[in-house]
Design goal:
With about 70 residues, the protein is of the alpha+beta class. The protein has one domain: Ubiquitin-like (UB roll) (Roll). The protein has one helix and five strands.
Length: about 70
């Protein structure tokens, strides 16, 4: 996501799996996780379009939008 717009295809995880920001980043590219310490998450059930800054252990919900930020 960049400037509130989704880039590329959404990633899909099994419904029964609890997914964190770390899981999301790792699914993109394992070495990519080393470059990020947090993310901006816009939850699908919120009216806050700017989202919130969260750590890599933040649990994601169905339809959440994630922007990885913050080099370690």
């Amino acid at each position: 996501m960049r400037n509130g717009e989704i880039e590329g295809k959404p990633l899909v995880f099994p419904a029964a799996q609890e997914v964190t920001v770390s899981d999301f980043a790792g699914s993109l590219r394992k070495r990519m996780l080393d470059g990020f310490s947090r993310a901006i998450v816009v939850e699908s059930d919120t009216t806050m379009p700017k989202g919130q800054i969260v750590g890599l252990d933040h649990k994601l919900g169905d339809g959440d939008k994630v922007e990885l930020v913050g080099l370690r």
